[in-house]
TrEMBL record:
One of its GO terms (biological process) is defense response. GO terms for molecular function: monoacylglycerol lipase activity; phospholipase activity. Keywords: Hydrolase, Lipid degradation, Lipid metabolism, Plant defense. The nitrogen atoms of the two glycine residues in the GGXR motif define the oxyanion hole, and stabilize the oxyanion that forms during the nucleophilic attack by the catalytic serine during substrate cleavage. Lipolytic acyl hydrolase (LAH). It comes from the Eukaryota. A motif (GXGXXG) lies at residues 35-40. This is Patatin. A motif (DGA/G) lies at residues 223-225. A motif (GXSXG) lies at residues 73-77. PANTHER family: PATATIN (PTHR32176:SF99), XYLOSE ISOMERASE (PTHR32176). Its EC number is 3.1.1.-. InterPro entries: Acyl_Trfase/lysoPLipase, PNPLA_dom.
Length: 393
């Protein structure tokens, strides 16, 4: 598993069995994509690079979904996950990775209609009568894109976290659950709309499914990022649960054996808040100051950063403790902002590979491992080799 996260970004990798599989593989491959709204352009840029390297090795028809056992995404990462893993009419991936940014550039300004900078994590002036955006265009384009496709039809095992605001608990949708529970086999479009429903930004999403006995199951969902903005740990836990239950036979692997897991975890450039606040500053804050102080949103900053960074620290600690740290790679909707985001993704590729310091939470360059593009090129070779093992005749 590997980590590409110098600007609150992570890159982790996984490999997918195909219909031609005749041989067990050697490693489990995982792709994880953070939430972040229009900043999905950053992982889109990195995924396009990775897929281009896979195509150099295996031909122009190579697609990301062919190489990953599990693809996990929250919020905008959930939408990218669906685009990578949903089947088209020929049962091939709906999108090539290079087309993800085209989607954001075409539809981003209509999903988030505004002229203000969208690099902020949350809007500083949400409407008093409802969310900042009505979400109508987002729901429409996702429905057109995914049509009647359901969770159990994805080409890789997809995991998309949401949060049920009625039950006050996370609600995780996965391909494997959808195949055994009718009530979890929701429309992929409904799940994508739900995981993108960031509080104050977009309205919560309600939909229904059916239990095996025909009874209705209701979901009242908002953005999965409130529970798992970085869904890496959700994906790894899911894999280990599948192993314990005897439902994972792609690779011979024991629970908690991270030496056989390759993870590419992609962040979306969420702003870091180090040194922004201190104990003296906040000691006498009122509840209002914690919610909004001088144009900042301290409480939301803290929850947002802690949710993502805690995953990096915990996962990095586990991989480092088992000597598998090299298996974990971290890495506004105006045209100007979107071009800037694409440029960030490109520049991130040329930065040195960094690994999280579990004591400070800071990302520190790793000597001898080159740039992120070097690491992704190495990962592409590992993914290609793993796929060749699995489809060997």
């Amino acid at each position: 598993m590997a980590l590409l996260r110098p600007i609150a970004t992570a890159l982790h990798c996984a490999n997918k069995p195909t219909s031609h599989q005749t041989t067990k593989g050697k490693i489990v491959t995982v792709l994880s994509i953070d939430g972040g709204g229009i900043r999905g352009i950053i992982p889109g840029t990195i995924l396009a690079f990775l897929e281009s390297k896979l195509q150099e090795l295996d031909g122009p028809n190579a697609r990301i979904a062919d190489y990953f056992d599990v693809i996990s995404g929250t919020s905008t990462g959930g939408l990218v996950t669906a685009m990578l893993a949903a089947p088209d009419k020929d049962n091939k991936p709906l999108f090539a990775a290079k087309d993800i940014n085209k989607f954001y550039f075409e539809h981003g300004p209509k999903i988030f209609p505004q002229d203000r900078n969208l690099f902020c994590v949350v809007p500083y002036s949400a409407s008093a009568t409802g969310p900042k955006y009505d979400g109508k265009y987002l729901r429409s384009i996702i429905k057109d894109l995914l049509d009647t496709k359901t969770m159990n039809q994805t080409l890789s095992d997809v995991i998309i976290p949401t949060f049920d605001i009625k039950l006050i608990q996370p609600m995780v949708f996965s391909t494997s659950d959808a195949k055994i529970k009718t009530s979890k086999n929701a429309l992929l479009a409904d799940v994508c709309v739900a995981t993108s429903a960031a509080p104050t930004f977009l309205p919560a999403h309600y939909f229904e499914t059916k239990h095996e006995d025909g009874k209705t199951r209701s979901f009242n969902l908002i953005d999965g990022g409130v529970a798992a903005n970085n869904p890496t740990q959700v994906a790894i836990t899911h894999i280990f649960n599948q192993i314990v239950k005897g439902h994972f036979d792609t690779v011979d692997i024991k629970p908690m054996d991270t030496t056989k897991i390759l993870v590419v975890s992609l962040g979306t450039g969420t702003a870091k808040f180090e040194a922004k606040y201190n104990a003296t500053m906040v000691a006498e804050w009122s509840p209002i100051n914690w919610i909004f102080d001088k144009g900042a949103t301290p409480l939301i900053d803290v929850y947002s950063a802690s949710s993502t960074d805690m995953v990096d620290i915990q996962v990095s600690s586990m991989f480092q403790a088992l000597g598998a740290e090299k298996n974990y790679l971290l890495d506004g909707a105006t045209t100007t902002n979107m071009e800037a985001l694409a440029d960030i993704g490109s520049k991130l590729l040329e930065k040195s590979v960094a690994r999280v310091n579990v004591d400070t939470g800071a990302f520190e360059p790793v000597v001898g491992e080159g740039t992120n593009s070097d690491a992704l090129t190495r990962f592409a070779k590992l993914l290609s080799d793993e796929r060749k093992i699995r489809i060997a005749k």
